[in-house]
Design brief:
- This protein is α+β, with helices and mostly antiparallel strands and about 725 residues long.
- It is built from 17 helices and 29 strands.
- The strands form nine sheets. A nine-stranded antiparallel beta sheet has the order 1-11-12-13-14-21-18-17-16.
- The longest helix is centred in the middle third of the chain and has 24 residues.
């Protein structure tokens, strides 16, 4: 047994050395990152800039604050202040119960209670609640009124990606204003330094105000609720030289905002005769032309550090220096292909946005911390796309931050599986910080989220093949596998195990009663159970017999005309003249590694058929850009992979600061980060390799490309 464990460890240790050889000489990482600094010379609401650290983020406009809130909300990226741990629920005066969202669903001869009653009062309430709490908003006022776009000219703004610091220079009615904005490297602290003659005269001040909550009747990009001041409280509890504390409370949610300033200033609140609006405070200079302050957000579990502007800026510089220098890097600066610069821009800006939005202790919603979507809840089905890139790009510690939430939710997930009559742990498709499933007509039927923790734990083990990793994630892997084996239903007549119905597969476009044996989900079940058996071997345990039985007898992925179907029985998806074929079956080779259940040439024919129906590369948009490039690269078609990543169709556009709109909801999910994450997953595979990849550097790129890569870890 010991010999077997040692052999397994040696094989796992060898996996990362599959990385392609790199050209001699270290990459000038600062130069690569500097090439893609975001520069604004005009007022562009699609080029709002976000600073943050994964657990805290602030998005600002060209003033360096959030002055032009409505303009940016209506025409581009919302301006918000968010953290991962402040959550809010509206009152429940009718005593609605989560149990009221449940309805019986037939499942292979028995009934399961699923929270499908989305459109009932209880369904709507528990779908919307809890949701993240919006934090303070920071604006410039001129002569007591919020600064307007027509007051501004001469804009020169830069986001230095290497330091995470925004520098904004502009003219306000002809007078210069310079603003420096940054977030702390690890804490929920914003730092601002503003300098202008208008500050010295007292005409330009900083407004700090607090909304009640989000208008949750709007699921994507909900606006703030400003017009209900009586429903929340903003209490000035401490005021001293250079310091003030504002206690916030709304429906039981509590947090503090700690303001500290190092320049002569005073805070004016609604309690003074000058202002009559609650939740509204003004910081104004009492000497000099500079306002320098920090705003720290805290609660009982997250105390506010006493940071200055200088210490916060230093923390930002250090955290970003560590991120850029200790992780992976790709340099396409000497590639002759004219598409290389845009591919590199998308990658570098996406790397920045991943740390800002996705590197927190709570697995994020699909719009991260930039703005609210899906009520701020974690959509676990796309979590491999979210998190695998952290492993590939050398930031396994950030992957593990999110996995820690899964570890904490194990007891709840095990209880959920048991209540439904399954073994193991059932992960919620959509949940808030508390891990409770969210009602929905689709949510309970999604299953491609269930193997995700196995996939991600395996990535951690590839990077850290040691007993400590097995001990930390062993239960997570085992309980996830138990559910996979329990969920697959055996046909007693044939001995074959099937998935569904009822199911919703990746595309979510087919009725739950018709979804049986979808190709990708079958392949993911095989992969998850095989990896779980490998974990048992590494732990010195015998294989689990039932898992082996499911692996050996799980239904074969369905085919028609030597191409994979998306779902068994749903045929003719490639008939002549049909447009817009589904693509989820391609995830079985690309997102997943090659396996005995997927034939490479059948996958190739399927990929070509999908690609042809999509009208060349213009059909690969959103996170499917990453999906398509992953499959093309693993099939040995690097030219096609590059073309997909370089797609310049309008719906594949990356905005100036790196965000991308969701094509299906371009005005709602304005910052749709699965696009960025899947892009990095694909580019990381193309540059850093995968198990069984062709020998040589950057195996997923054409041979005539000059690609320099450092610190990338290969995918399975």
């Amino acid at each position: 047994m010991l010999a077997r464990l040692l052999l397994s460890l040696l094989l796992s240790v060898s996996a990362p050395v599959l990385q392609a050889a790199e050209p001699a000489g270290a990459i000038d990482r600062a130069a690569v990152v500097a090439r893609h600094a975001v520069r604004n010379t005009g007022l562009n609401p699609e080029s709002a800039l976000t600073v943050g650290n994964g657990d805290f983020a602030v998005t600002v406009d060209v003033t360096g604050l959030q002055t032009l809130e409505r303009l940016y909300y209506d025409n581009g990226l919302p301006l918000e202040t968010r953290n991962t741990w402040s959550w809010h629920s509206f009152p429940n005066p009718d005593g609605l119960r989560f149990e009221d969202t449940l309805a019986p669903v037939p499942f292979h001869g028995r009934q399961i209670l699923y929270p499908t009653q989305q459109n009932t009062p209880a369904g709507r309430y528990f779908r919307e609640n809890p949701q993240p709490m919006p934090l303070g908003q920071f604006q410039f006022t001129l002569f007591g009124e919020v600064l307007r776009s027509e007051d501004i000219a001469g804009i020169h703004q830069t986001l230095d990606l290497w330091t995470g610091i925004v520098t904004s220079r502009l003219l306000v009615r002809g007078q210069p204003l310079e603003v420096t904005t940054a977030a702390h490297g690890s804490a929920a602290v914003l730092a601002v330094r503003a300098r202008s003659p208008l500050i010295a005269s007292g005409d330009l001040q900083v407004r700090v105000r607090f909304p009640y909550a989000y208008r949750s009747s709007i699921a994507h990009k909900p606006p703030f609720i400003w017009e209900q001041p009586e429903r929340h409280r903003s209490t000035l509890t401490q005021v001293g030289p250079g310091h003030a504390r504002i206690a916030r409370e709304a429906d039981g949610t509590r947090y503090d905002t700690e303001l500290r300033w190092s320049t002569p200033a005073e805070l004016v609140s609604a309690a003074t005769p000058q202002l009559a609006a609650p939740h509204d405070f003004r910081l104004r200079a009492t000497g000099g032309d500079t306002l320098a302050f920090t705003a720290a957000f805290a609660d009982a579990e997250h105390p506010a550090p006493e940071e200055t502007v200088d210490s916060t800026l230093a923390s930002s510089r250090q955290a970003w220096h560590d991120y850029w220098t200790k992780g992976g890097m790709v340099d396409l600066g000497t590639a002759a292909d004219p598409r290389a610069r845009e591919i590199e821009r998308r990658a570098i800006q996406s790397l920045y946005l991943m740390r800002v939005n996705y590197a927190g202790s709570f697995p994020p919603a699909e719009t991260g911390l930039q703005h609210l979507s899906w009520f701020g809840k974690h959509n676990s089905e796309v979590y491999v796309f979210h998190a695998a890139q952290f492993y590939q790009w050398g930031h396994v510690d950030l992957l593990e931050k999110g996995l820690a939430w899964y570890l904490a939710q194990l007891p709840r997930g095990i209880a959920q599986a048991k209540s439904e009559g399954f073994d193991g742990v059932r992960w919620p498709k959509m949940s808030g910080l508390d891990g409770r499933p969210t009602p929905g007509a689709i949510n309970p039927y999604i299953i491609w989220n269930q193997p995700n923790p196995i996939y991600l734990a395996e990535l951690v083990y590839r990077a850290r093949p040691m007993q400590a990793t097995l001990q930390r994630y062993g239960e997570l892997v085992a309980e996830s596998a138990r559910f996979l084996a329990s969920f697959a239903q055996r046909d007693p007549a044939t001995g074959t195990y099937h998935l569904g119905p009822p199911l919703k597969n990746v595309s979510e476009s087919t009725s739950v009663e018709l979804v049986r044996d979808p190709t990708f989900e079958l392949a993911f079940w095989h992969y998850g159970l095989r990896v779980a058996q490998q974990w048992r071997q590494r732990q010195g345990l015998a294989p689990e017999p039932h898992w082996d039985d499911v692996i050996k007898h799980l239904a074969a992925p369905p085919q028609q005309d030597s191409k994979y179907l998306e779902i068994a029985g749903i045929r003719d998806i490639f008939r002549p003249g049909k447009q817009g074929a589904p693509s989820s079956m391609l995830l079985a080779l690309g997102y997943l590694p090659a396996s005995p259940v997927i034939d490479t040439e059948t996958a190739r024919r399927t990929f070509h058929a999908v690609h042809e129906q999509r009208g060349a590369d213009g059909g690969w948009v959103s996170w499917q850009m990453g999906q398509g490039a992953l499959t093309a690269a693993r099939l040995g078609e690097p030219e096609r992979a590059v073309a997909i990543l370089a797609n310049t169709a309008p719906s594949a556009r990356f905005m100036p600061s790196g965000y991308s709109r969701r094509p299906r909801d371009p005005e709602g999910a304005v910052a749709y980060l699965p696009t960025n994450a899947a892009y990095l997953m694909a580019l990381g595979l193309m540059a850093g390799g995968w198990d069984g990849a062709p020998a040589g550097p950057a195996p997923g790129f054409p041979k005539d490309w000059t690609v320099r890569a450092e610190g990338l870890l290969p995918l399975p």
